[in-house]
C-alpha cells in the first residue's frame, strides 16, 4: 500500500526533489515486481516441487505393496496414536504380532501396527511392505503431493514479495539517512546566527 501511496511524488511540483522521483520509481518498481515476479517465483517453485513429489509418488507406488496380514496375538500395550499419513485419525490402532506373505512369496512374522480397535487372533488387516516384506509407511498419494506443492508455491510467492518489500524499505531507509545527513550539514553551514538581523541571511 505504501508503494502505491509513494506514486504521488510524480505530480508536478516545483519543490519536487530528485530523491522524491527516485522514491516514486522505486515504489513503482517494487509494486510491479510484487505483482509479477513474486507469483512467477511461486509458480516456478510449485511446479518444481510438484514434479519432485509426483516422482516420489510414482516411486513409492512401485516400491511399496499392499498386503494382507493375519493377527497372531495382540500385545499388552494400549492403542497407539494413529498413523499421521492417514486421512483421518479416527481409526484405532493396536500393536499386534502378525503373519504376512511378502510380494516375493517369503513368509514373514513380526510386530506391526494394525488398524483394528480390538484385534483378535485370525483377524485380517492390510499393511504396506517393500517387495521383501519389510514394513513400510503408507505411500504418498497424488492429492497430498499436489497440496504440498501448492503450499510450497504460495510460500515462495509470499517470501519473494516480502524480500522485495524489505529491499525497497532498506533502500528507502538509506536514502532518508542520506537526506537527513545533508540537512544536518546545511544547518551546520547556516550557523547558529541563521535568521537574526544583520547576519547576511
TrEMBL record:
InterPro entries: MT1774/Rv1733c-like. It comes from the Bacteria. PANTHER family: MEMBRANE PROTEIN RV1733C-RELATED. This is Uncharacterized protein. It comes from Streptomyces populi.
Amino acid at each position: 500500500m505504501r508503494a502505491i501511496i509513494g506514486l504521488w511524488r510524480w505530480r508536478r511540483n516545483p519543490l519536487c526533489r530528485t530523491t522524491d522521483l527516485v522514491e516514486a520509481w522505486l515504489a513503482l518498481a517494487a509494486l510491479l515486481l510484487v505483482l509479477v515476479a513474486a507469483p512467477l517465483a511461486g509458480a516456478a517453485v510449485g511446479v518444481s516441487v510438484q514434479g519432485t513429489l509426483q516422482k516420489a509418488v510414482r516411486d513409492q507406488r512401485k516400491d511399496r505393496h499392499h498386503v494382507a496380514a493375519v493377527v497372531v496375538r495382540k500385545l499388552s500395550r494400549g492403542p497407539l496414536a494413529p498413523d499421521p499419513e492417514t486421512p483421518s485419525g479416527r481409526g484405532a490402532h493396536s500393536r499386534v504380532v502378525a503373519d504376512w506373505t511378502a510380494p516375493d512369496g517369503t513368509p514373514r512374522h513380526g510386530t506391526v501396527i494394525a488398524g483394528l480397535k480390538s484385534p483378535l487372533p485370525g483377524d485380517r488387516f492390510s499393511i504396506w511392505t517393500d517387495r521383501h516384506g519389510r514394513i513400510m509407511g503408507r505411500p504418498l498419494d497424488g492429492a497430498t503431493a499436489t497440496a504440498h506443492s501448492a503450499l510450497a508455491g504460495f510460500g515462495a510467492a509470499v517470501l519473494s514479495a516480502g524480500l522485495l518489500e524489505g529491499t525497497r524499505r532498506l533502500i528507502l531507509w538509506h536514502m532518508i539517512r542520506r537526506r537527513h545527513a545533508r540537512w544536518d550539514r546545511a544547518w551546520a553551514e547556516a550557523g547558529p546566527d541563521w535568521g537574526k538581523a544583520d547576519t547576511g541571511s
